[in-house]
Design goal:
The protein has about 400 residues and is an alpha/beta fold. The chain has 2 domains: about 80 residues, no CATH class; about 280 residues, Spore Coat Polysaccharide Biosynthesis Protein SpsA, Chain A. Helices cover about 40% and strands about 15% of the residues. It contains 14 helices and 11 strands. β3, α4 and β4 form a beta-alpha-beta unit. α8 packs across α12.
Protein backbone atom coordinates (compact mmCIF):
# COMPACT_ATOMS: atom_id res chain seq x y z
CA UNK A 1 0.00 0.00 0.00
CA UNK A 2 1.47 3.39 -0.99
CA UNK A 3 1.55 6.16 1.57
CA UNK A 4 0.69 9.47 -0.08
CA UNK A 5 0.39 12.26 2.43
CA UNK A 6 -0.40 12.28 6.12
CA UNK A 7 -4.12 11.69 5.51
CA UNK A 8 -3.35 8.28 4.00
CA UNK A 9 -0.94 7.53 6.86
CA UNK A 10 -3.66 8.28 9.39
CA UNK A 11 -5.98 5.92 7.53
CA UNK A 12 -3.26 3.27 7.50
CA UNK A 13 -2.78 3.68 11.25
CA UNK A 14 -6.51 3.27 11.88
CA UNK A 15 -6.80 0.19 9.68
CA UNK A 16 -3.75 -1.57 11.12
CA UNK A 17 -3.44 -0.44 14.75
CA UNK A 18 -1.52 -3.53 15.87
CA UNK A 19 1.13 -3.73 13.15
CA UNK A 20 3.39 -0.92 14.21
CA UNK A 21 2.93 -0.21 17.90
CA UNK A 22 6.21 -0.05 19.82
CA UNK A 23 6.30 2.71 22.40
CA UNK A 24 8.57 2.43 25.42
CA UNK A 25 7.23 3.97 28.59
CA UNK A 26 9.72 5.13 31.20
CA UNK A 27 9.17 4.07 34.80
CA UNK A 28 6.86 6.50 36.56
CA UNK A 29 8.38 8.44 39.43
CA UNK A 30 5.84 9.05 42.18
CA UNK A 31 6.57 12.80 42.30
CA UNK A 32 7.06 13.46 38.62
CA UNK A 33 4.77 13.33 35.65
CA UNK A 34 5.10 10.20 33.47
CA UNK A 35 7.67 10.61 30.73
CA UNK A 36 7.08 8.82 27.47
CA UNK A 37 9.97 8.04 25.18
CA UNK A 38 8.72 8.62 21.70
CA UNK A 39 10.44 5.69 20.03
CA UNK A 40 8.33 4.82 17.01
CA UNK A 41 9.15 1.88 14.78
CA UNK A 42 7.27 1.01 11.62
CA UNK A 43 8.21 -2.63 10.91
CA UNK A 44 6.21 -2.81 7.70
CA UNK A 45 8.56 -3.42 4.77
CA UNK A 46 9.55 -0.09 3.26
CA UNK A 47 7.21 1.84 5.55
CA UNK A 48 9.99 3.87 7.19
CA UNK A 49 11.48 4.83 3.80
CA UNK A 50 8.09 5.74 2.36
CA UNK A 51 7.24 7.75 5.47
CA UNK A 52 10.51 9.74 5.16
CA UNK A 53 9.92 10.35 1.46
CA UNK A 54 6.42 11.59 2.24
CA UNK A 55 7.84 14.08 4.75
CA UNK A 56 10.35 15.37 2.17
CA UNK A 57 7.62 15.77 -0.43
CA UNK A 58 5.50 17.75 2.02
CA UNK A 59 8.42 20.05 2.87
CA UNK A 60 9.18 20.58 -0.82
CA UNK A 61 5.55 21.32 -1.58
CA UNK A 62 5.38 23.87 1.23
CA UNK A 63 8.60 25.53 0.04
CA UNK A 64 7.35 25.83 -3.55
CA UNK A 65 4.02 27.16 -2.31
CA UNK A 66 5.85 29.84 -0.34
CA UNK A 67 8.06 30.98 -3.27
CA UNK A 68 5.11 31.12 -5.64
CA UNK A 69 3.14 33.27 -3.23
CA UNK A 70 6.02 35.76 -2.66
CA UNK A 71 5.52 38.80 -4.95
CA UNK A 72 8.37 40.95 -3.67
CA UNK A 73 11.46 40.68 -1.52
CA UNK A 74 11.29 41.86 2.05
CA UNK A 75 13.73 42.16 4.92
CA UNK A 76 11.33 40.36 7.25
CA UNK A 77 12.09 36.69 7.88
CA UNK A 78 10.05 34.38 5.73
CA UNK A 79 7.74 31.88 7.34
CA UNK A 80 6.43 28.99 5.34
CA UNK A 81 2.66 28.59 5.36
CA UNK A 82 1.57 24.95 5.71
CA UNK A 83 -0.22 23.53 2.71
CA UNK A 84 -3.89 23.02 3.33
CA UNK A 85 -4.62 19.41 4.26
CA UNK A 86 -0.99 18.55 5.06
CA UNK A 87 1.40 18.75 8.00
CA UNK A 88 5.11 19.05 8.45
CA UNK A 89 7.37 16.07 9.04
CA UNK A 90 7.65 16.89 12.75
CA UNK A 91 3.91 17.16 13.23
CA UNK A 92 3.45 13.99 11.21
CA UNK A 93 5.63 12.19 13.72
CA UNK A 94 3.49 13.64 16.50
CA UNK A 95 0.37 12.35 14.78
CA UNK A 96 1.84 8.85 14.80
CA UNK A 97 3.07 9.08 18.41
CA UNK A 98 -0.27 10.41 19.64
CA UNK A 99 -2.02 7.55 17.86
CA UNK A 100 0.32 5.04 19.46
CA UNK A 101 -0.24 6.48 22.91
CA UNK A 102 -4.02 6.48 22.50
CA UNK A 103 -4.00 2.88 21.25
CA UNK A 104 -1.94 1.50 24.14
CA UNK A 105 -3.75 -1.27 25.99
CA UNK A 106 -5.51 0.41 28.86
CA UNK A 107 -5.29 -1.38 32.19
CA UNK A 108 -7.87 -0.84 34.92
CA UNK A 109 -7.15 -1.57 38.58
CA UNK A 110 -10.55 -2.04 40.23
CA UNK A 111 -11.19 -2.01 43.95
CA UNK A 112 -14.42 -3.03 45.67
CA UNK A 113 -15.17 -1.01 48.81
CA UNK A 114 -17.36 -2.82 51.31
CA UNK A 115 -18.80 -2.19 54.76
CA UNK A 116 -16.60 -1.89 57.83
CA UNK A 117 -17.27 -4.85 60.13
CA UNK A 118 -15.95 -4.21 63.65
CA UNK A 119 -14.13 -5.86 65.35
CA UNK A 120 -12.60 -7.20 62.11
CA UNK A 121 -12.06 -3.64 60.84
CA UNK A 122 -11.95 -0.27 62.50
CA UNK A 123 -15.10 1.82 62.12
CA UNK A 124 -13.49 4.03 59.46
CA UNK A 125 -11.06 1.61 57.80
CA UNK A 126 -12.47 1.90 54.26
CA UNK A 127 -12.23 5.69 54.05
CA UNK A 128 -8.77 5.92 55.65
CA UNK A 129 -7.23 3.23 53.45
CA UNK A 130 -8.79 4.76 50.34
CA UNK A 131 -7.34 8.14 51.21
CA UNK A 132 -3.90 6.55 51.73
CA UNK A 133 -4.04 5.06 48.23
CA UNK A 134 -5.01 8.34 46.57
CA UNK A 135 -2.32 10.29 48.38
CA UNK A 136 0.60 7.88 47.98
CA UNK A 137 0.01 5.48 45.07
CA UNK A 138 1.30 6.28 41.57
CA UNK A 139 0.23 4.51 38.36
CA UNK A 140 1.25 4.97 34.68
CA UNK A 141 -0.78 7.17 32.35
CA UNK A 142 -2.26 4.25 30.39
CA UNK A 143 -3.69 2.78 33.62
CA UNK A 144 -6.81 3.84 35.47
CA UNK A 145 -8.25 3.19 38.90
CA UNK A 146 -11.88 2.17 39.28
CA UNK A 147 -13.66 2.22 42.62
CA UNK A 148 -16.86 0.29 43.34
CA UNK A 149 -18.77 1.57 46.39
CA UNK A 150 -20.61 -1.63 47.18
CA UNK A 151 -23.89 -1.07 49.06
CA UNK A 152 -22.51 0.74 52.10
CA UNK A 153 -25.04 0.82 54.92
CA UNK A 154 -23.95 4.30 56.05
CA UNK A 155 -25.04 7.09 53.69
CA UNK A 156 -22.55 9.54 55.20
CA UNK A 157 -19.67 7.22 54.28
CA UNK A 158 -20.95 6.96 50.72
CA UNK A 159 -21.08 10.76 50.45
CA UNK A 160 -17.58 11.12 51.93
CA UNK A 161 -16.12 8.63 49.43
CA UNK A 162 -17.90 10.28 46.47
CA UNK A 163 -16.53 13.65 47.54
CA UNK A 164 -13.03 12.17 47.83
CA UNK A 165 -13.16 10.57 44.37
CA UNK A 166 -14.48 13.78 42.85
CA UNK A 167 -11.61 15.72 44.42
CA UNK A 168 -9.01 13.36 42.91
CA UNK A 169 -10.86 12.96 39.59
CA UNK A 170 -11.21 9.19 40.05
CA UNK A 171 -13.57 6.82 38.23
CA UNK A 172 -16.15 5.24 40.53
CA UNK A 173 -19.50 3.46 40.52
CA UNK A 174 -22.01 3.32 43.37
CA UNK A 175 -24.14 0.25 44.06
CA UNK A 176 -27.01 1.55 46.15
CA UNK A 177 -29.37 -0.36 48.37
CA UNK A 178 -32.89 0.19 49.69
CA UNK A 179 -32.33 1.86 53.07
CA UNK A 180 -35.99 1.36 53.97
CA UNK A 181 -35.58 -2.43 54.09
CA UNK A 182 -33.10 -3.76 56.68
CA UNK A 183 -33.03 -7.22 55.10
CA UNK A 184 -32.02 -5.64 51.78
CA UNK A 185 -29.28 -3.54 53.41
CA UNK A 186 -27.65 -6.56 55.02
CA UNK A 187 -27.98 -8.84 51.99
CA UNK A 188 -26.56 -6.21 49.62
CA UNK A 189 -23.87 -5.13 52.06
CA UNK A 190 -22.41 -8.64 52.33
CA UNK A 191 -22.67 -9.38 48.61
CA UNK A 192 -19.10 -8.50 47.54
CA UNK A 193 -19.31 -10.61 44.39
CA UNK A 194 -21.91 -8.27 42.93
CA UNK A 195 -19.35 -5.48 43.23
CA UNK A 196 -16.69 -7.61 41.55
CA UNK A 197 -18.98 -8.40 38.62
CA UNK A 198 -19.85 -4.72 38.22
CA UNK A 199 -16.13 -3.86 38.24
CA UNK A 200 -15.56 -6.25 35.32
CA UNK A 201 -18.53 -4.90 33.39
CA UNK A 202 -17.64 -1.24 33.95
CA UNK A 203 -13.96 -1.79 33.21
CA UNK A 204 -14.43 -3.62 29.93
CA UNK A 205 -17.69 -2.19 28.57
CA UNK A 206 -17.64 1.39 29.84
CA UNK A 207 -13.90 2.16 30.17
CA UNK A 208 -12.88 0.01 27.17
CA UNK A 209 -10.02 -1.64 29.09
CA UNK A 210 -7.93 -4.45 27.67
CA UNK A 211 -7.19 -5.80 31.16
CA UNK A 212 -8.98 -5.47 34.50
CA UNK A 213 -7.28 -6.45 37.75
CA UNK A 214 -9.61 -6.92 40.73
CA UNK A 215 -8.49 -5.99 44.25
CA UNK A 216 -9.97 -5.52 47.67
CA UNK A 217 -10.57 -2.03 48.96
CA UNK A 218 -7.46 -2.11 51.15
CA UNK A 219 -5.06 -2.88 48.29
CA UNK A 220 -1.94 -0.73 47.80
CA UNK A 221 0.14 -1.03 44.62
CA UNK A 222 3.86 -0.23 44.47
CA UNK A 223 5.93 0.36 41.34
CA UNK A 224 7.68 -2.97 41.93
CA UNK A 225 4.36 -4.78 42.17
CA UNK A 226 2.84 -2.95 39.20
CA UNK A 227 5.59 -3.55 36.63
CA UNK A 228 5.00 -7.32 36.09
CA UNK A 229 1.25 -6.74 35.80
CA UNK A 230 1.62 -4.05 33.13
CA UNK A 231 4.24 -6.00 31.16
CA UNK A 232 2.08 -9.13 31.19
CA UNK A 233 -1.08 -7.25 30.21
CA UNK A 234 0.65 -5.53 27.28
CA UNK A 235 1.96 -8.86 25.97
CA UNK A 236 -1.27 -10.88 26.37
CA UNK A 237 -4.18 -9.42 24.44
CA UNK A 238 -4.49 -11.92 21.57
CA UNK A 239 -6.13 -14.80 23.46
CA UNK A 240 -8.26 -15.20 26.60
CA UNK A 241 -5.97 -14.96 29.62
CA UNK A 242 -6.21 -14.76 33.41
CA UNK A 243 -3.59 -13.60 35.90
CA UNK A 244 -3.13 -14.41 39.58
CA UNK A 245 -1.58 -11.59 41.60
CA UNK A 246 0.25 -12.20 44.89
CA UNK A 247 -1.03 -10.61 48.10
CA UNK A 248 1.14 -9.61 51.06
CA UNK A 249 -0.76 -8.65 54.20
CA UNK A 250 0.87 -5.99 56.35
CA UNK A 251 1.20 -6.90 60.02
CA UNK A 252 2.53 -3.50 61.05
CA UNK A 253 1.20 0.01 60.39
CA UNK A 254 4.12 1.19 58.28
CA UNK A 255 4.22 4.30 56.08
CA UNK A 256 3.43 3.43 52.46
CA UNK A 257 4.73 4.90 49.21
CA UNK A 258 5.16 3.72 45.63
CA UNK A 259 8.91 3.15 45.93
CA UNK A 260 8.64 0.43 48.59
CA UNK A 261 10.38 -2.85 47.72
CA UNK A 262 9.09 -6.11 49.17
CA UNK A 263 12.52 -7.30 50.26
CA UNK A 264 12.77 -4.29 52.59
CA UNK A 265 9.42 -4.87 54.31
CA UNK A 266 9.10 -8.64 54.12
CA UNK A 267 9.53 -8.96 57.89
CA UNK A 268 6.49 -6.69 58.36
CA UNK A 269 4.20 -8.92 56.23
CA UNK A 270 2.66 -12.38 56.33
CA UNK A 271 4.52 -13.39 53.18
CA UNK A 272 2.62 -14.37 50.05
CA UNK A 273 -0.43 -16.31 51.21
CA UNK A 274 -3.35 -15.06 49.13
CA UNK A 275 -4.08 -14.07 45.53
CA UNK A 276 -6.15 -11.64 43.47
CA UNK A 277 -7.45 -12.10 39.94
CA UNK A 278 -6.98 -10.23 36.66
CA UNK A 279 -8.42 -11.02 33.23
CA UNK A 280 -8.32 -9.58 29.72
CA UNK A 281 -11.20 -8.51 27.51
CA UNK A 282 -11.21 -11.70 25.44
CA UNK A 283 -11.62 -13.81 28.57
CA UNK A 284 -14.43 -11.54 29.72
CA UNK A 285 -16.26 -11.72 26.37
CA UNK A 286 -15.78 -15.49 26.29
CA UNK A 287 -17.41 -15.85 29.69
CA UNK A 288 -20.22 -13.43 28.84
CA UNK A 289 -21.09 -15.45 25.74
CA UNK A 290 -21.42 -18.67 27.73
CA UNK A 291 -23.41 -19.83 30.70
CA UNK A 292 -20.62 -18.85 33.11
CA UNK A 293 -22.00 -15.45 34.11
CA UNK A 294 -22.11 -13.81 36.56
CA UNK A 295 -18.40 -14.54 36.72
CA UNK A 296 -18.41 -14.42 40.53
CA UNK A 297 -21.24 -16.31 42.18
CA UNK A 298 -23.52 -13.66 43.67
CA UNK A 299 -25.35 -16.23 45.80
CA UNK A 300 -22.25 -16.47 48.02
CA UNK A 301 -22.00 -13.75 50.65
CA UNK A 302 -18.88 -12.41 52.34
CA UNK A 303 -17.16 -14.97 54.56
CA UNK A 304 -18.45 -17.99 52.60
CA UNK A 305 -15.50 -18.49 50.25
CA UNK A 306 -17.11 -16.07 47.80
CA UNK A 307 -13.84 -15.17 46.05
CA UNK A 308 -11.88 -18.38 46.59
CA UNK A 309 -14.55 -20.48 44.84
CA UNK A 310 -13.93 -18.69 41.56
CA UNK A 311 -10.14 -18.66 41.96
CA UNK A 312 -10.07 -22.40 42.65
CA UNK A 313 -12.20 -23.02 39.57
CA UNK A 314 -9.64 -21.17 37.43
CA UNK A 315 -6.54 -22.76 38.93
CA UNK A 316 -6.72 -25.82 36.67
CA UNK A 317 -6.92 -23.77 33.47
CA UNK A 318 -3.87 -23.51 31.25
CA UNK A 319 -4.46 -19.84 30.43
CA UNK A 320 -4.32 -18.77 34.12
CA UNK A 321 -0.84 -17.30 34.61
CA UNK A 322 0.85 -17.67 38.02
CA UNK A 323 -1.93 -20.00 39.19
CA UNK A 324 0.59 -21.93 41.30
CA UNK A 325 0.66 -19.07 43.85
CA UNK A 326 -2.93 -19.79 44.94
CA UNK A 327 -2.09 -20.92 48.47
CA UNK A 328 -3.84 -21.27 51.80
CA UNK A 329 -3.54 -18.57 54.45
CA UNK A 330 -1.92 -21.00 56.89
CA UNK A 331 1.11 -21.63 54.68
CA UNK A 332 4.43 -20.65 56.22
CA UNK A 333 6.35 -17.68 54.89
CA UNK A 334 8.68 -18.54 52.02
CA UNK A 335 12.33 -17.54 51.86
CA UNK A 336 13.26 -14.07 50.65
CA UNK A 337 14.73 -15.59 47.47
CA UNK A 338 11.49 -17.39 46.60
CA UNK A 339 9.45 -14.29 47.44
CA UNK A 340 11.59 -12.24 45.06
CA UNK A 341 10.97 -14.83 42.33
CA UNK A 342 7.20 -14.60 42.89
CA UNK A 343 7.25 -10.81 42.80
CA UNK A 344 9.27 -10.65 39.58
CA UNK A 345 6.93 -13.08 37.78
CA UNK A 346 3.48 -12.34 39.14
CA UNK A 347 3.52 -8.88 40.67
CA UNK A 348 1.87 -8.20 44.01
CA UNK A 349 -0.32 -5.93 46.09
CA UNK A 350 0.01 -4.93 49.74
CA UNK A 351 -3.06 -5.54 51.89
CA UNK A 352 -3.21 -2.61 54.31
CA UNK A 353 -3.87 -3.07 58.00
CA UNK A 354 -7.31 -3.53 59.53
CA UNK A 355 -6.85 -0.55 61.88
CA UNK A 356 -5.23 2.39 60.04
CA UNK A 357 -6.45 4.97 62.57
CA UNK A 358 -3.94 7.35 64.14
CA UNK A 359 -4.46 5.92 67.61
CA UNK A 360 -4.19 2.28 66.44
CA UNK A 361 -1.13 0.24 67.53
CA UNK A 362 1.87 -0.10 65.23
CA UNK A 363 2.06 -3.87 65.81
CA UNK A 364 -1.17 -5.45 64.51
CA UNK A 365 -0.18 -9.10 64.46
CA UNK A 366 -2.83 -9.87 67.06
CA UNK A 367 -5.60 -8.59 64.76
CA UNK A 368 -4.36 -10.90 62.03
CA UNK A 369 -4.17 -13.87 64.39
CA UNK A 370 -7.81 -13.31 65.37
CA UNK A 371 -8.93 -12.59 61.79
CA UNK A 372 -11.21 -15.64 61.51
CA UNK A 373 -12.89 -15.06 64.87
CA UNK A 374 -13.28 -11.33 64.26
CA UNK A 375 -14.80 -11.93 60.81
CA UNK A 376 -17.51 -14.16 62.28
CA UNK A 377 -18.13 -11.63 65.05
CA UNK A 378 -18.19 -8.71 62.58
CA UNK A 379 -20.83 -10.35 60.38
CA UNK A 380 -22.87 -11.23 63.45
CA UNK A 381 -22.75 -7.61 64.66
CA UNK A 382 -23.81 -6.41 61.19
CA UNK A 383 -27.02 -8.42 61.48
CA UNK A 384 -27.59 -7.24 65.06
CA UNK A 385 -27.23 -3.62 63.99
CA UNK A 386 -30.44 -3.96 61.97
CA UNK A 387 -32.18 -6.28 64.49
CA UNK A 388 -31.98 -9.26 62.15
CA UNK A 389 -31.30 -12.88 62.89
CA UNK A 390 -28.25 -14.26 61.14
CA UNK A 391 -29.03 -17.28 58.94
CA UNK A 392 -27.09 -20.46 59.63
Amino acid sequence: MKLKGDRTIRKWLQESPNNHILVKLAKVHPTKAPRKRKYVHLPKRGARRRHTETCHRLHKKQKNRHHLSSDEDTDEPRTSTPVKGSTTCTSLHLVIVNHLQSSLNQVVFARVLGNDLPPLHSTNQTFLNTKTVLENESIPSNCKRLWIINSLSDREKVDALVELFTLYNESYRVIRTDYSKPEKIVADGLNVNRGRNLALKAGFEEMDAEWVFLFDGAAFLTQEGLSPLIEFSQANTKKPSFHFTAVYRLLYKIVLDSEIRIQNILEFTTGQQETMLGMNKLAYLQKRSRVWWPFFDESLSYGRADKFTTLARLKGRGNAYCREILRGVNQEKKSAKLEHHTVARCGYMLRMVYYPDDNAPFDQREYFRLKGVNRVEGIKNFYKRFNLKQPK
